[in-house]
Amino acid sequence: MNNALILGPLQRSGTTLPLFDAQVPAGFPSPALDHMEHKLSLDVLLDLQAPHTYVVAVSGDSMVGAGIFDNDHLIVSRALQARPGHVVVACLNGDVFVKRLAQDQGQFVLRSENPAYSPRYILEQDELMIWGVVTHSLRNHLNHG
């Protein structure tokens, strides 16, 4: 069962957005927020290292404990070395998943971040390929209820 769809590599855009000079409070707004002093590049913010970065669309609820929800888009880096504790895009026996990479007594495990799903221990006969490390997630807040 797949829960990740590879959308393709990212390319640098060079587009910048206004950046507020102060942090935005989650409570009451500050009058100081009327001042936009800087420009911010999403390429820099998301550390896009084209062509080593790509986007994945997520389906399912197995990673909600990591803040990754159905229909989110993930920024994935192929340039990073996957380590236990990282959320990764993994291909296990031909199926592509987004899971947390773990190690249990020397054995690699792909763990969901939802207790409804069991961990998947990697067996000797399994073919596991790590396709990248998840660095950021993007969510459309208009379409999440």
From TrEMBL:
It comes from the Bacteria. InterPro entries: LexA-like (IPR039418), LexA/Signal_pep-like_sf (IPR036286), LexA_repressor (IPR050077), Peptidase_S24_S26A/B/C (IPR015927). Signal peptide: none annotated. This is Translesion error-prone DNA polymerase V autoproteolytic subunit. Pfam families: Peptidase_S24 (PF00717). Keywords: Nucleotidyltransferase, Transferase. PANTHER family: LEXA REPRESSOR, LEXA REPRESSOR-RELATED. Its EC number is 2.7.7.7. GO terms for molecular function: DNA-directed DNA polymerase activity. SUPFAM superfamilies: LexA/Signal peptidase. Gene3D superfamilies: Umud Fragment, subunit A (2.10.109.10). Residues 18-134 form the Peptidase S24/S26A/S26B/S26C domain. The gene is umuD.
